[in-house]
């Protein structure tokens, strides 16, 4: 998927990056990518390793692929963020309810117009190399993103100035009222506060230095990354010695390793194995509806997809329930908009299914095609082999559309090629997902505003632009909700994106792992986790 994902083409991610590669998220860890197998376990298994990785008080976590790089501003890969979430901090951060709460900033003040935020940093925060954190580090981090036009730079579109009043205070001034500023700087992992010396030396790529609850300890390419507890962290320090991440692309291998006790935690879980894990008395399985969504986008710059009737014909013919069932084995939730029901910003919408059984939906699709002058249609659908879910979903979609006389040719591409083709507009349609959304602006602006940085489908609707601009500055929550209810329905009516479903965030862990929470934003945080292995504290 896209996670406000990246400019680098080496790994998929999850962000608002489609167009300039900034926001694709690494699909479900259950699918995984790469060729790493069970041998990856040896580096992280207690007893088989030495030092921190072999400590009985180190969490052994299996993720489905290797981070592409360790610079949080330049990666967009979910595998990278799973690790880096524990190494770096942000100025503010979302709690488990996805409400913004203090992180490196212990407090902030906002002027009545909500155009100026003054953040007060926590005292005595230090980088992992011992240097003190100051307000200039925050300014440097944000200016690096903005000036370098890095993947998260769009989140600062409304920011006029960022200054350090002194070592303890940062002032962010916006051009217009900014009700989503806190979620913009805290809700996405690419907004980490980085160390200037670490960046300028180039060492951030191989040995990142953050202020987070864990510091980077070691890396074995294609095998593992080990993090060490930072006892001086402002949260009070972790309760474990460290976290050893192993890379296991085969979900069945990760699940077997969890059940045998070789690893303590994994999100590399094939959906079809959830029942097995649920029945294991030694395993906890956490599943929540994620803030992610999967979608199909058709290219407005290519005929006949510039015709709204054709796009709607495709939307009527697709059976979202069957797609969600096949891909998620009952864990995914069909949705015709982006925002899931669990969000306070959810809007009910069922235009493409209301009052229609499958046969009636297909008839409606054929009728729209005839109105547009087509008795049949051919359509390419671009997916990535690095995200098996896209391939599986595309096969169901092809079968669905065949019923309406639409022949689909599935193009399975390496993700780097997929990104190049998407950026160049060389596609009829594509299938992908987005991750990392919190504020409604995250779900819609970059993707559907005519000037949006991730609007690769080339959608343009002046009223949608007006509403999206208004949503960015409206301070009244009730009016803001109405704006997004209106604009999201217009986007769906126009089929700028053809929304498919919201997936689940599913993670499994040994019952020896305590105080760990599965989150809707898929943030993997071991800050508060404990191990009760009989000898571990």
From TrEMBL:
InterPro entries per UniProt: Peptide/Ni-bd, SBP_5, SBP_5_dom, TAT_signal
Keyword Repeat on entry: no
Q: Does the keyword Cell membrane belong to this entry?
A: no
Q: Which Gene3D superfamilies match?
A: Dipeptide-binding Protein, Domain 1, Dipeptide-binding Protein, Domain 3, Periplasmic binding protein-like II
| Keyword list, A-Z | Signal, Transport
Homology family: Belongs to the bacterial solute-binding protein 5 family.
Return the protein name: ABC transporter substrate-binding protein
According to its UniProt entry, this protein's organism is Gordonia jacobaea
- Tell me the organism's taxonomic lineage: Bacteria, Bacillati, Actinomycetota, Actinomycetes, Mycobacteriales
């Amino acid at each position: 998927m896209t996670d406000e994902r990246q400019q680098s083409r080496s790994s998929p991610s999850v962000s608002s990056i489609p167009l300039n590669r900034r926001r694709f998220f690494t699909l479900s860890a259950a699918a995984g990518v790469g060729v790493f197998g069970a041998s990856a376990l040896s580096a992280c298994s207690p007893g088989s390793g030495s030092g921190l990785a072999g400590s009985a008080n180190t969490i052994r976590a299996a993720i489905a692929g290797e981070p592409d790089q360790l610079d949080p501003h330049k990666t967009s890969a979910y595998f990278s963020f799973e690790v880096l979430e524990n190494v770096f901090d942000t100025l503010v951060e979302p709690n488990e309810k996805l409400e913004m709460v203090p992180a490196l900033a212990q407090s902030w003040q906002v002027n009545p117009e909500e155009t100026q935020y003054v953040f007060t940093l926590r005292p005595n925060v230090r980088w992992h190399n011992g240097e003190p954190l100051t307000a200039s580090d925050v300014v440097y981090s944000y200016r690096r993103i903005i000036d370098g036009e890095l993947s998260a730079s769009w989140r600062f579109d409304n920011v006029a100035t960022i200054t350090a009043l002194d070592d303890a205070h940062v002032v962010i001034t916006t051009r217009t009222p900014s009700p989503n500023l806190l979620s913009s700087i805290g809700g996405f992992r690419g907004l980490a506060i980085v160390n200037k010396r670490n960046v300028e030396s180039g060492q951030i790529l191989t040995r990142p230095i953050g202020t987070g609850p864990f510091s980077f300890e070691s890396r074995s390419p294609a095998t593992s990354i080990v993090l060490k507890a930072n006892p001086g962290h402002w949260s009070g320090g972790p309760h474990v010695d460290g976290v050893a991440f192993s890379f296991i692309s085969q979900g069945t291998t990760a699940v077997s390793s969890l059940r045998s006790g070789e690893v303590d935690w994994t999100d590399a879980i094939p959906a079809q194995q959830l029942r097995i894990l649920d029945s294991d008395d030694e395993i906890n399985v956490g599943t929540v509806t994620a803030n992610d969504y999967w979608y199909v986008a058709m290219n407005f710059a290519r005929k006949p997809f510039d015709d709204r009737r054709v796009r709607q014909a495709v939307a009527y013919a697709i059976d979202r329930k069957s797609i969600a069932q096949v891909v998620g084995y009952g864990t995914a939730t069909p949705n015709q908009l982006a925002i899931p029901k669990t969000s306070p910003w959810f809007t009910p919408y069922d235009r493409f299914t209301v009052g229609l059984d499958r046969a009636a939906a297909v008839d409606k699709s054929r009728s729209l095609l005839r109105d547009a002058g087509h008795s049949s249609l051919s359509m390419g659908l671009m997916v990535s082999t690095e995200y098996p879910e896209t391939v599986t979903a595309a096969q169901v979609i092809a079968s669905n559309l065949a019923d309406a006389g639409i022949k689909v040719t599935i193009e399975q591409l390496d993700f780097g090629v997929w990104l190049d083709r998407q950026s160049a507009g060389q596609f009829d349609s594509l299938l992908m997902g987005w991750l990392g959304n919190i504020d409604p602006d995250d779900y819609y602006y970059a993707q559907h505003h005519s000037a949006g940085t991730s609007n690769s489908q080339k959608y343009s609707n002046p009223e949608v632009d007006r509403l999206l601009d208004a949503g960015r500055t409206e301070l009244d929550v009730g009016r803001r909700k109405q704006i997004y209810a209106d604009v999201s329905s217009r986007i769906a009516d126009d089929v700028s994106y053809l929304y498919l479903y919201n997936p689940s965030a599913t993670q499994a862990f040994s019952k020896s792992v305590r105080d760990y929470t599965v989150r809707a934003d898929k943030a993997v945080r071991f800050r508060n986790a404990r191990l009760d292995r009989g000898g571990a504290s």
